[in-house]
Automatic annotation (TrEMBL):
Its EC number is 1.3.3.3. Belongs to the aerobic coproporphyrinogen-III oxidase family. It comes from the Bacteria. A divalent metal cation binds at residues 103, 113, 152, 182. It is found in: Cytoplasm. It catalyses: coproporphyrinogen III + O2 + 2 H(+) = protoporphyrinogen IX + 2 CO2 + 2 H2O. The keyword Metal-binding applies. This is Oxygen-dependent coproporphyrinogen-III oxidase. Keywords: Cytoplasm, Heme biosynthesis, Metal-binding, Oxidoreductase, Porphyrin biosynthesis. GO terms for biological process: protoporphyrinogen IX biosynthetic process. Involved in the heme biosynthesis. Catalyzes the aerobic oxidative decarboxylation of propionate groups of rings A and B of coproporphyrinogen-III to yield the vinyl groups in protoporphyrinogen-IX. The active site is at 113 (proton donor). It comes from Noviherbaspirillum galbum. The gene is hemF. The keyword Cytoplasm applies.
Length: 307
């Protein structure tokens, strides 16, 4: 079987995945995701290509949600993409993927992030270098063990057919990646994360990408359905806004995808689609010991084996 990449097949899958996720979340919310298709022609900057951003704001369940598809290319890899592979620095490149972030209104419902992506780098008279990346992670404001266990179970099941060692490896990768070094705390309860992955042949790598992408609805929608009608007050909303500040800090300071998008001259509105709508910061604040807010830190923002 050929190990040559098939970008057209990957693109077709990603477009279908975006539609399926938007349809499922829109049905749950009761409001429709807006569509913003964009294009950047060759010669307009360092990258060319386009994408489709699907956005829902001020929904019934989702305060802000975005599911973005992009397919872009350039003549020379930006520093963030070649950092781990100096041998391909300066090559022409092509990237495509679906990335999403959901920020629910109810503080008892967790924020979720997922992305799946495919990358190729080419040079004359050389074999193309390709890899897949992706994963999903969960960021609760008020922790529930059954939610974290369910999310991790789906994550484990999505990669289990491709190797027994992948879930523990990708879980650790997620724990280490979504970690705010300047705060010395995890962003949430994790999930799975992988990048620069081509350890299997193309067919198997592509199949694993589809399994991860297809798993998001099963991992996340039951949590929304379970928590969206939980009563809450101003205290819970205030804590949610405070914790959302950590989400902003990670995405702007540490996230490799954000850096890649900005360094490569990407579309700012799409890159920053993941930002939460209402955020607060406080100076040197900690929750009172024994409170539900404190429990997030003591029981959930720690490295745990959930399944």
């Amino acid at each position: 079987m050929s190990n040559s990449p098939r970008p057209d097949d990957v693109k077709a899958y990603l477009l279908g995945l975006q539609t399926r996720i938007v349809d499922a979340l829109g049905q749950l919310d009761g409001k429709t995701f807006l569509t913003d298709a964009w294009e950047r022609p060759a010669g307009a900057g360092p990258i060319a290509g386009g994408g489709i951003s699907r956005i829902l704001e001020e929904g019934n369940v989702l305060e802000r949600g975005g599911v973005g598809f992009s397919h872009v290319s350039g003549s020379s890899l930006p520093p963030s993409a070649a950092a781990n592979r100096p041998d391909i620095a300066g090559r022409a490149w092509e990237a495509m993927g679906v990335s999403l972030v959901m920020h629910p209104r109810n503080p008892y419902t967790p924020t979720a992030h997922m992305n799946v992506r495919f990358f190729t780098a080419t040079a004359p008279d050389k074999e193309p270098v390709w890899w897949f990346g992706g994963g999903m992670d969960l960021t609760p404001y008020y922790g529930f063990e059954e939610d974290a266990k369910h999310f991790h179970q789906v994550c484990r099941d999505s990669v289990a057919p491709f190797g027994e060692n992948l879930y523990p490896r990708f879980k650790t990768w997620c724990d280490e990646y979504f970690y705010l070094k300047h705060r010395k705390e995890p962003r949430g309860v994790g999930g799975i994360f992988y990048d620069d992955f081509n350890a299997l042949d193309f067919e198997q790598c592509f199949a694993m990408m589809r399994s991860v992408g297809d798993g998001f609805i099963a991992a996340y929608l039951p949590l929304l359905e379970r928590r969206k009608d939980t009563p809450y007050g101003e205290r819970e909303r205030d804590f949610q806004a405070y914790r959302r500040g950590r989400y902003v800090e990670f995405n702007l300071v540490l996230d490799r995808g954000t850096h890649f998008g900005l360094q490569s001259g990407g579309r700012t509105e799409s890159i920053l689609m993941s930002m939460p709508p209402v955020v607060k910061w406080r100076y040197d604040w900690k929750p009172e010991a024994g409170t539900p807010e404190d429990k997030l830190y003591t029981d959930f923002l720690v490295h745990r084996d959930w399944v």
